[in-house]
Amino acid sequence: MSFDNGAVGAAIRRLRKERGLSQEVLSGLAGIARTHLTMIESGTKQANFETLWRIAGALNMRASELVAQIEAQVEMDMKK
C-alpha cells in the first residue's frame, strides 16, 4: 500500500462532513489554518503526523483510528 495525499484528504473530508463540521470549525478545533486544512483535503499538501494527530483530536478520535480510516480510503481508491 502506498502513501496517497488524495486518500488522506478524502478521508478527512468525509469524516468532517459526517460530523457536520465546516473547514473553519475543524481547523479551529485542530489549531491549524483553514487554508492548510483545505490543501490537505484537496491532496495538494501532505500533513505531518502532528497535524494528523491534531485533526484526529478535533474529530474526537484517536490518531490510530484516523490512520485506519485513511488506509480504508486508500484501499477503496485502489479498487476504482
Explain the layout of strands and helices.
Blueprint: H1 5-18, H2 23-30, H3 34-42, H4 49-58, H5 63-79
Helix pairs in contact: 1-3, 1-5, 2-3, 2-4, 4-5
Give a description of the structure:
With 80 residues, this protein is mainly α. The protein has a single domain (5-73), classed as Orthogonal Bundle (434 Repressor (Amino-terminal Domain)), CATH 1.10.260. The protein is 72% helix and 0% strand. It is built from 5 helices and no strands. Helix 1 packs across helix 3 (34-42) and helix 4 (49-58) crosses helix 5 (63-79).
Features:
80 residues, mainly alpha, 434 Repressor (Amino-terminal Domain), 5 helices, 0% strand
Q: What does the main sheet amount to? A: none
**Weakly predicted, low-confidence segments:** none
Q: Helix fraction?
A: over 70%
Alpha carbon gap, first and last residue: 15 Å
**CATH architecture name:** Orthogonal Bundle
Strands, count = 0
DSSP summary: helix tally: 5
The succession of helices and strands, N to C, reads HHHHH
Structural class: mainly alpha
Shape: globular
Strand coverage percent: under 5%
Q: Provide the CATH top-level class.
A: Mainly Alpha
Number of domains: 1
Q: Which whole number gives the mean pLDDT?
A: 95
CATH superfamily caption:
lambda repressor-like DNA-binding domains
| Spatial extent as radius of gyration | 11 Å
Q: Any idea of the CATH topology?
A: 434 Repressor (Amino-terminal Domain)
